[in-house]
Amino acid sequence: MKDLIASIWAEDLKVRRSKLLWISAIIFSMIPLGVGFLILVLRSPGLAGHLGIVKTKANLFLAAADWPAYMGLLSQTTAADGILWFAFVTSWVFGREYTDHTVKDLLALPVSRITIVLSKFIILVVWCLLLSALIIISGLITGFAISLPNFSLNLLYSGLGKIMVSAVLAIILITPVAFLASVGKGYLLPLGFTASVFIVIQVTNMLGWAAFFPWAIPVLYITPSEHLGAVSYIILLLTGIAGTILTLAWWQYADQSGS
Question: At what angle do helices 67-99 and 188-207 cross, to 10 degrees?
Answer without folding.
Answer: 150
